[in-house]
Amino acid sequence: MTLCILTFILFSQTLIVGFSNALNVTVTPYPWAWHPVGENASLWCSVSQKRRPDSLLTVRWVFSTEPGHEQVIGRITKSGAAHIAANWSHRGDLSSDNLDRGHRYRLTLHDLRLTDQGHYICRVQEVARHKSRWTAVSNGTAATQLRVSTFMISEEKKLFSWKLFQDLYLYAVLLCCVGILSLLIFLLILLCQTIFQKRRSRALVMRVQVRLTCYQISLAKRKEKETSRQRLPQLFL
Ligand SMILES: *[C@@H]1O[C@H](CO)[C@@H](O)[C@H](O)[C@H]1NC(C)=O
Ligand SMILES: *[C@@H]1O[C@H](CO)[C@@H](O)[C@H](O)[C@H]1NC(C)=O
Ligand SMILES: *[C@@H]1O[C@H](CO)[C@@H](O)[C@H](O)[C@H]1NC(C)=O
Ligand SMILES: *[C@@H]1O[C@H](CO)[C@@H](O)[C@H](O)[C@H]1NC(C)=O
Protein backbone atom coordinates (compact mmCIF):
# COMPACT_ATOMS: atom_id res chain seq x y z
CA MET A 1 0.00 0.00 0.00
CA THR A 2 2.75 2.46 1.03
CA LEU A 3 4.72 1.35 -2.02
CA CYS A 4 1.67 2.12 -4.17
CA ILE A 5 1.32 5.61 -2.72
CA LEU A 6 5.05 6.25 -3.07
CA THR A 7 5.05 5.22 -6.75
CA PHE A 8 1.97 7.35 -7.31
CA ILE A 9 3.68 10.41 -5.77
CA LEU A 10 6.81 9.79 -7.81
CA PHE A 11 4.75 9.34 -10.97
CA SER A 12 2.71 12.53 -10.41
CA GLN A 13 5.92 14.46 -9.69
CA THR A 14 7.47 13.32 -12.95
CA LEU A 15 4.21 14.31 -14.65
CA ILE A 16 4.35 17.80 -13.12
CA VAL A 17 8.01 18.13 -14.13
CA GLY A 18 7.06 16.97 -17.63
CA PHE A 19 4.35 19.61 -17.86
CA SER A 20 6.52 22.37 -16.47
CA ASN A 21 9.08 21.44 -19.13
CA ALA A 22 6.56 22.37 -21.83
CA LEU A 23 6.47 25.88 -23.27
CA ASN A 24 3.60 28.09 -22.15
CA VAL A 25 1.89 28.80 -25.48
CA THR A 26 -1.43 30.69 -25.77
CA VAL A 27 -3.49 31.62 -28.80
CA THR A 28 -5.81 34.63 -28.74
CA PRO A 29 -8.68 35.21 -29.25
CA TYR A 30 -9.56 32.09 -27.28
CA PRO A 31 -11.57 29.79 -27.28
CA TRP A 32 -12.95 31.10 -30.53
CA ALA A 33 -12.92 34.08 -32.88
CA TRP A 34 -15.92 35.13 -34.90
CA HIS A 35 -15.79 37.00 -38.21
CA PRO A 36 -18.18 37.58 -41.09
CA VAL A 37 -17.33 36.50 -44.62
CA GLY A 38 -15.02 38.90 -46.45
CA GLU A 39 -13.32 40.31 -43.35
CA ASN A 40 -9.69 39.88 -42.29
CA ALA A 41 -8.93 37.95 -39.14
CA SER A 42 -5.82 38.05 -36.96
CA LEU A 43 -4.79 35.38 -34.51
CA TRP A 44 -1.91 35.76 -32.08
CA CYS A 45 0.27 33.02 -30.69
CA SER A 46 2.21 34.03 -27.57
CA VAL A 47 5.08 32.25 -25.89
CA SER A 48 5.62 33.68 -22.45
CA GLN A 49 8.98 32.25 -21.56
CA LYS A 50 11.69 30.14 -23.11
CA ARG A 51 13.28 27.29 -21.13
CA ARG A 52 16.81 28.31 -21.96
CA PRO A 53 18.26 31.76 -22.56
CA ASP A 54 20.42 30.64 -25.50
CA SER A 55 17.65 28.82 -27.35
CA LEU A 56 15.56 29.90 -30.36
CA LEU A 57 11.94 29.29 -31.28
CA THR A 58 10.39 27.85 -34.41
CA VAL A 59 6.65 28.26 -35.00
CA ARG A 60 4.25 26.35 -37.18
CA TRP A 61 0.67 27.48 -37.86
CA VAL A 62 -1.60 24.56 -38.72
CA PHE A 63 -5.19 24.54 -39.95
CA SER A 64 -7.49 21.66 -39.07
CA THR A 65 -11.15 21.10 -39.84
CA GLU A 66 -11.29 17.70 -38.17
CA PRO A 67 -8.95 15.75 -35.89
CA GLY A 68 -6.19 14.01 -37.82
CA HIS A 69 -6.62 16.21 -40.89
CA GLU A 70 -4.12 19.06 -40.77
CA GLN A 71 -2.68 21.54 -43.26
CA VAL A 72 0.43 23.57 -42.57
CA ILE A 73 -0.32 27.24 -43.27
CA GLY A 74 3.22 28.42 -42.73
CA ARG A 75 6.18 28.48 -40.39
CA ILE A 76 8.64 30.86 -38.85
CA THR A 77 12.18 29.56 -38.69
CA LYS A 78 14.56 30.02 -35.76
CA SER A 79 16.18 32.93 -37.62
CA GLY A 80 12.74 34.65 -37.77
CA ALA A 81 12.05 34.16 -41.50
CA ALA A 82 8.40 33.53 -42.40
CA HIS A 83 7.54 30.90 -44.98
CA ILE A 84 3.92 30.53 -46.00
CA ALA A 85 2.57 27.48 -47.83
CA ALA A 86 2.01 28.00 -51.57
CA ASN A 87 -1.78 27.64 -51.47
CA TRP A 88 -2.09 30.06 -48.52
CA SER A 89 0.35 32.67 -49.87
CA HIS A 90 -2.30 35.01 -51.33
CA ARG A 91 -4.64 34.57 -48.34
CA GLY A 92 -2.47 34.66 -45.25
CA ASP A 93 0.29 36.65 -43.62
CA LEU A 94 2.75 35.67 -40.92
CA SER A 95 4.74 37.99 -38.71
CA SER A 96 6.56 37.94 -35.40
CA ASP A 97 7.33 40.46 -32.65
CA ASN A 98 9.92 40.02 -29.99
CA LEU A 99 8.49 41.57 -26.88
CA ASP A 100 10.32 42.35 -23.68
CA ARG A 101 8.78 39.34 -22.05
CA GLY A 102 8.30 36.53 -24.51
CA HIS A 103 7.42 36.37 -28.17
CA ARG A 104 4.31 36.94 -30.21
CA TYR A 105 3.45 35.51 -33.62
CA ARG A 106 0.59 36.81 -35.75
CA LEU A 107 -1.37 35.00 -38.41
CA THR A 108 -3.62 37.18 -40.56
CA LEU A 109 -6.16 35.71 -42.94
CA HIS A 110 -7.55 37.99 -45.65
CA ASP A 111 -10.97 37.94 -47.27
CA LEU A 112 -12.42 35.15 -45.10
CA ARG A 113 -14.48 32.40 -46.66
CA LEU A 114 -16.77 29.84 -45.09
CA THR A 115 -14.14 27.16 -45.80
CA ASP A 116 -11.70 28.99 -43.47
CA GLN A 117 -13.81 27.88 -40.53
CA GLY A 118 -11.96 25.45 -38.27
CA HIS A 119 -9.19 25.10 -35.73
CA TYR A 120 -5.98 27.09 -35.98
CA ILE A 121 -3.13 25.49 -34.11
CA CYS A 122 0.15 27.10 -33.13
CA ARG A 123 2.97 24.63 -32.55
CA VAL A 124 6.11 26.08 -31.03
CA GLN A 125 9.41 24.29 -30.64
CA GLU A 126 12.35 25.55 -28.67
CA VAL A 127 15.69 24.52 -30.17
CA ALA A 128 19.18 24.91 -28.79
CA ARG A 129 22.61 24.27 -30.21
CA HIS A 130 24.06 21.13 -28.74
CA LYS A 131 27.50 20.09 -30.02
CA SER A 132 27.12 22.17 -33.21
CA ARG A 133 23.64 20.67 -33.91
CA TRP A 134 20.23 22.22 -33.27
CA THR A 135 18.09 19.95 -31.13
CA ALA A 136 14.63 20.35 -29.64
CA VAL A 137 14.63 21.35 -26.00
CA SER A 138 10.94 21.79 -25.37
CA ASN A 139 7.74 22.50 -27.21
CA GLY A 140 4.24 23.74 -26.73
CA THR A 141 0.93 23.82 -28.60
CA ALA A 142 -2.19 25.95 -28.41
CA ALA A 143 -5.25 26.29 -30.63
CA THR A 144 -8.32 28.38 -31.18
CA GLN A 145 -11.41 28.03 -33.29
CA LEU A 146 -12.38 30.41 -36.08
CA ARG A 147 -16.05 30.80 -36.93
CA VAL A 148 -17.05 32.50 -40.16
CA SER A 149 -20.63 33.66 -40.58
CA THR A 150 -22.38 34.35 -43.88
CA PHE A 151 -23.76 37.73 -42.82
CA MET A 152 -21.83 40.97 -42.96
CA ILE A 153 -21.95 42.88 -39.68
CA SER A 154 -24.20 45.62 -41.10
CA GLU A 155 -26.56 43.02 -42.56
CA GLU A 156 -26.66 41.23 -39.24
CA LYS A 157 -27.43 44.51 -37.48
CA LYS A 158 -30.13 45.34 -40.04
CA LEU A 159 -31.61 41.89 -39.64
CA PHE A 160 -31.50 42.28 -35.88
CA SER A 161 -33.22 45.68 -35.94
CA TRP A 162 -35.80 44.41 -38.44
CA LYS A 163 -36.49 41.46 -36.18
CA LEU A 164 -36.75 43.78 -33.19
CA PHE A 165 -39.14 46.00 -35.14
CA GLN A 166 -41.20 42.97 -36.14
CA ASP A 167 -41.32 41.86 -32.53
CA LEU A 168 -42.38 45.34 -31.37
CA TYR A 169 -45.02 45.46 -34.09
CA LEU A 170 -46.32 42.07 -33.00
CA TYR A 171 -46.46 43.19 -29.37
CA ALA A 172 -48.31 46.39 -30.35
CA VAL A 173 -50.87 44.44 -32.38
CA LEU A 174 -51.30 41.97 -29.53
CA LEU A 175 -51.76 44.78 -27.02
CA CYS A 176 -54.32 46.47 -29.31
CA CYS A 177 -56.21 43.20 -29.69
CA VAL A 178 -56.30 42.68 -25.92
CA GLY A 179 -57.48 46.29 -25.45
CA ILE A 180 -60.26 45.97 -28.01
CA LEU A 181 -61.32 42.61 -26.58
CA SER A 182 -61.53 43.94 -23.02
CA LEU A 183 -63.47 46.99 -24.25
CA LEU A 184 -65.93 44.69 -26.04
CA ILE A 185 -66.33 42.54 -22.92
CA PHE A 186 -66.89 45.65 -20.83
CA LEU A 187 -69.56 46.91 -23.25
CA LEU A 188 -71.23 43.50 -23.29
CA ILE A 189 -71.39 43.41 -19.50
CA LEU A 190 -72.83 46.94 -19.47
CA LEU A 191 -75.46 45.99 -22.06
CA CYS A 192 -76.42 42.84 -20.14
CA GLN A 193 -76.76 44.82 -16.94
CA THR A 194 -78.97 47.50 -18.49
CA ILE A 195 -81.18 44.88 -20.15
CA PHE A 196 -81.48 42.96 -16.89
CA GLN A 197 -82.27 46.12 -14.93
CA LYS A 198 -84.88 47.20 -17.49
CA ARG A 199 -86.53 43.83 -17.31
CA ARG A 200 -86.53 43.94 -13.55
CA SER A 201 -88.00 47.43 -13.42
CA ARG A 202 -90.59 46.48 -16.02
CA ALA A 203 -91.53 43.42 -13.96
CA LEU A 204 -91.78 45.66 -10.90
CA VAL A 205 -94.02 48.10 -12.73
CA MET A 206 -96.14 45.23 -13.99
CA ARG A 207 -96.42 43.81 -10.50
CA VAL A 208 -97.39 47.21 -9.14
CA GLN A 209 -99.89 47.66 -11.94
CA VAL A 210 -101.35 44.22 -11.33
CA ARG A 211 -101.67 44.94 -7.63
CA LEU A 212 -103.18 48.28 -8.36
CA THR A 213 -105.76 46.81 -10.72
CA CYS A 214 -106.45 44.03 -8.22
CA TYR A 215 -106.96 46.62 -5.53
CA GLN A 216 -109.13 48.69 -7.85
CA ILE A 217 -111.18 45.64 -8.70
CA SER A 218 -111.63 44.67 -5.07
CA LEU A 219 -112.48 48.28 -4.26
CA ALA A 220 -115.04 48.34 -7.04
CA LYS A 221 -116.50 45.01 -5.82
CA ARG A 222 -116.70 46.29 -2.28
CA LYS A 223 -118.40 49.43 -3.48
CA GLU A 224 -120.81 47.40 -5.53
CA LYS A 225 -121.58 45.22 -2.52
CA GLU A 226 -122.09 48.26 -0.38
CA THR A 227 -124.38 49.86 -2.88
CA SER A 228 -126.31 46.61 -3.28
CA ARG A 229 -126.58 46.35 0.50
CA GLN A 230 -127.81 49.91 0.62
CA ARG A 231 -130.17 49.20 -2.25
CA LEU A 232 -131.55 46.00 -0.68
CA PRO A 233 -133.20 47.64 2.27
CA GLN A 234 -134.65 50.19 -0.10
CA LEU A 235 -136.01 47.36 -2.17
CA PHE A 236 -137.44 45.65 0.88
CA LEU A 237 -138.80 48.84 2.20
C1 LIG B 1 1.11 31.32 -19.57
O1 LIG B 1 1.22 32.61 -20.12
C2 LIG B 1 0.10 33.42 -19.92
C3 LIG B 1 0.37 34.77 -20.60
O2 LIG B 1 0.88 34.59 -21.87
C4 LIG B 1 -0.14 33.61 -18.44
O3 LIG B 1 -1.31 34.37 -18.24
C5 LIG B 1 -0.31 32.25 -17.79
O4 LIG B 1 -0.45 32.38 -16.40
C6 LIG B 1 0.89 31.37 -18.10
N1 LIG B 1 0.67 30.04 -17.56
C7 LIG B 1 1.58 29.35 -16.88
C8 LIG B 1 1.18 28.00 -16.42
O5 LIG B 1 2.69 29.83 -16.67
C1 LIG C 1 -8.05 43.18 -45.41
O1 LIG C 1 -6.66 43.25 -45.70
C2 LIG C 1 -6.35 43.77 -46.97
C3 LIG C 1 -4.85 43.70 -47.16
O2 LIG C 1 -4.14 44.12 -46.04
C4 LIG C 1 -6.83 45.24 -47.06
O3 LIG C 1 -6.59 45.75 -48.31
C5 LIG C 1 -8.36 45.24 -46.81
O4 LIG C 1 -8.84 46.57 -46.76
C6 LIG C 1 -8.67 44.54 -45.48
N1 LIG C 1 -10.13 44.43 -45.38
C7 LIG C 1 -10.81 44.78 -44.29
C8 LIG C 1 -12.28 44.57 -44.33
O5 LIG C 1 -10.24 45.26 -43.32
C1 LIG D 1 -2.91 23.08 -49.87
O1 LIG D 1 -2.02 22.10 -50.39
C2 LIG D 1 -2.00 20.88 -49.66
C3 LIG D 1 -0.96 20.01 -50.29
O2 LIG D 1 0.26 20.66 -50.41
C4 LIG D 1 -3.38 20.25 -49.68
O3 LIG D 1 -3.40 19.08 -48.92
C5 LIG D 1 -4.40 21.22 -49.15
O4 LIG D 1 -5.70 20.69 -49.28
C6 LIG D 1 -4.32 22.54 -49.86
N1 LIG D 1 -5.20 23.50 -49.21
C7 LIG D 1 -6.01 24.31 -49.85
C8 LIG D 1 -6.80 25.26 -49.01
O5 LIG D 1 -6.11 24.33 -51.06
C1 LIG E 1 7.70 17.93 -27.56
O1 LIG E 1 8.51 17.74 -26.41
C2 LIG E 1 8.36 16.49 -25.76
C3 LIG E 1 9.24 16.49 -24.56
O2 LIG E 1 9.27 17.71 -23.91
C4 LIG E 1 8.72 15.36 -26.72
O3 LIG E 1 8.47 14.11 -26.13
C5 LIG E 1 7.88 15.49 -27.98
O4 LIG E 1 8.27 14.54 -28.95
C6 LIG E 1 8.03 16.87 -28.58
N1 LIG E 1 7.18 17.01 -29.73
C7 LIG E 1 7.56 17.58 -30.85
C8 LIG E 1 6.54 17.68 -31.93
O5 LIG E 1 8.69 18.01 -31.00
Automatic annotation (TrEMBL):
The cellular component terms of Gene Ontology attached to this UniProt record, alphabetical and capped at eight, are:
membrane
Which Pfam families does the record cross-reference, listed alphabetically? V-set
Domain of life per record = Eukaryota
The record's keywords, sorted A to Z, are: Disulfide bond, Immunoglobulin domain, Membrane, Signal, Transmembrane, Transmembrane helix
The Ig-like domain covers 38-149
Q: Where is the signal peptide?
A: 1-22
Residue ranges crossing the lipid bilayer per the database entry: 168-192
Its protein name is V-set and transmembrane domain-containing 4
In its UniProt entry, the species of origin is given as: Pelobates cultripes
